[in-house]
Amino acid sequence: MPDKTADLDKKTEEKAVMPSSTEVPLTLDAGPAPGKPRSLWSDAWHDLRRSPLFIVSALMILFLIVMAIWPGLFTDASPRDADLKNHYLQHPNWSHFFAADWFGYDVQGRSIYARVIHGARASIAVGVVVTLAVTIIGTIVGMVAGYFGGWVDSLLSRLTDVFFGVPFIVGAMVILTTFEERAVWVVILALAFLGWTQIARVARGAVITIKQSDYVVAARALGASTSRIMFKHILPNAMAPIIVVATIALGGYIGAEATLSYLGIGLAEPTVSWGIDVASGKDQLRNAPFVLMIPSVMVAITVLSFLMFGDAVRNALDPKMR
To answer: Sorted alphabetically, which CDD domains does this protein's record hold (predicted)?
Structure first.
């Protein structure tokens, strides 16, 4: 007879070696835990950091902002000191980098290099402040119209159409001619008074789409107030298209300020502005073209930088561009 005790001991040893079907071996690798899903803003920042367009434009804008805030870092020459006797239309001296005579002198004997450096403050200040103002005004108007709808939407939409039908430059010219002193704040008010319509339309469309979302309906069902729904749930999700439009429009406001100053209706002396310098150099295009070309190039570079920045932000925030 076979030894039943030996067979039983052998089966016991095999069960001890083999793992139970309900147990998971400790040596198995379950793989990395799934990461937290990224939001639209984190995805946008991830794309922007790898965008050459964004990096180049951001560096150019940073340089212009530093130049506008701290012009003394780039030159110690005054943009208003004039010397007609010694510096009348003196040509650029390329042998002295970052010197007062690097870009030459204008018809009044003033350093063009110093005026280019100091002129960045007025142009960028107008662009940035106008953009902030029209973004706030347009967002509020668009949110109220899109959220409440009905007669409120009809009234605000018709008001927006009225302002939108006024030619931007012509309307700004009409407003500015009513002021005797055209300082920086006057130009900002004129441009902001007419420039909010596009952002209002974008904000209205975004709010109409977002207010039908499930989380907005749930917040309303739970008794959340109107202000909480608008500013806590709707506004953060509607900011992406608003930011895209605002960043692209910023360069346009800088160009508008230069255009108005060139026409003699925008900023006026003693304010230092690129548009004023372009206007003063237009009569010297034949014998001293650098007086006109240098401030014109600065306007073009600044506007191009903000347009490139806006395009990069649009590509990162718009899912259709991915």
So the answer is: TM_PBP2
SS3 per residue for the chain: CCCHHHHHHHHHHHHHHCCCCCCCCCCCCCCCCCCCCCCHHHHHHHHHCCCHHHHHHHHHHHHHHHHHHCHHHCCCCCCCCCCHHHHCCCCCCCCCCCCCCCCCECCCCCEHHHHHHHHHHHHHHHHHHHHHHHHHHHHHHHHHHHHHCHHHHHHHHHHHHHHHCCCHHHHHHHHHCCCCCCCHHHHHHHHHHHCCHHHHHHHHHHHHHHCCCHHHHHHHHCCCCHHHHHHHHHHHHHHHHHHHHHHHHHHHHHHHHHHHHHCCCCCCCCCCCHHHHHHHHHHHCCCCCHHHHHHHHHHHHHHHHHHHHHHHHHHHHCHHHC
How many Cα atoms within 13 Å fall on the side-chain side of residue 107? 14
314-to-47, 243, 287, 318 alpha-carbon distances in Å: 11, 8, 43, 6
Asked if residue 134 lies in contact with residue 308, where contact means CB atoms within 8 angstroms, the answer is: no
Distance, CA of 282 to chain centre: 31
CB-CB contact of 118 with 76 (8 Å): no
Q: CA torsion 120→126→132→136, rounded to 10°?
A: 180
Can you name the residues that pair with 306 across neighbouring β-strands?
none
Output the six-digit token pair for 290.
Answer: 């650098």
Q: How far apart are the C-alpha atoms of 180 and 164, rounded to whole Å?
A: 26
**Planar angle of CA 267, 268, 274, nearest 5 degrees:** 60
**Lookup: tokens for 320:** 């259709």
List pLDDT tens digits, range 236-285.
Answer: 888 888 998 998 899 889 999 999 988 888 888 888 889 889 988 888 88
pLDDT tens-digit readout, 123-173:
899 999 999 999 999 999 999 999 998 899 999 999 999 998 888 989 999
Phi and psi for 111 in degrees, rounded to 5? -70, 120
What's the mean pLDDT in 72-76? 88
